[in-house]
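Hello again, I could really use a second opinion on something today. I've been staring at a protein lately and its backbone has me curious. Can you walk me through what the tokens say about the fold? Take your time with it, there's no hurry, and the full record follows here:
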Amino acid sequence: RLGVDPYPKDVATPSERGGLQAGDVVVAVDDQPVTDRPTLYASVWAHRPGDPIRFQVFRGDAVREVVVESA
């Protein structure tokens, strides 16, 4: 699978607290494909604080959607 591990394993982030889990592989943000960290970060930074961000993540053997409130 092509995607991005969104963060270092030793840091609890707002996205983790919002439902993303260590080991998730982000494959899209708001239905836009993500293939590298700069694209992932730009997709997240494009949101204002409080905006919902829809992450499509590969977890286990399936793609799931996780909605996180932007910090």
Summary: The CA atoms of residues 50 and 70 lie 5 Å apart. The chain has two helices and four strands. The two ends are 28 Å apart (CA to CA). The chain has a mean pLDDT of 86.
